[in-house]
Design brief:
- The structure is a single chain.
- The protein is about 90% helix and about 0% strand.
- The chain is mainly alpha-helical and about 45 residues long.
- The protein has one domain (about 1-44).
- About 0% of the residues are buried.
Length: about 45
């Protein structure tokens, strides 16, 4: 798992800044969706 994580980290280094920002925004959106789902389930 650590080796896989390191490989992903090395791949990210190849991306330029714009692509890193796009990936970060995409991850943030996914996290927000997951949190919303958890909150909705908690209220039900």
């Amino acid at each position: 798992f650590l080796i896989q994580l390191d490989f992903v980290g090395n791949r990210i280094e190849f991306f330029n800044e714009e692509e890193k920002i796009k990936m970060a925004n995409y991850i943030l959106v996914l996290v927000n969706i997951v949190l919303l789902v958890l909150i909705v389930q908690a209220e039900v």
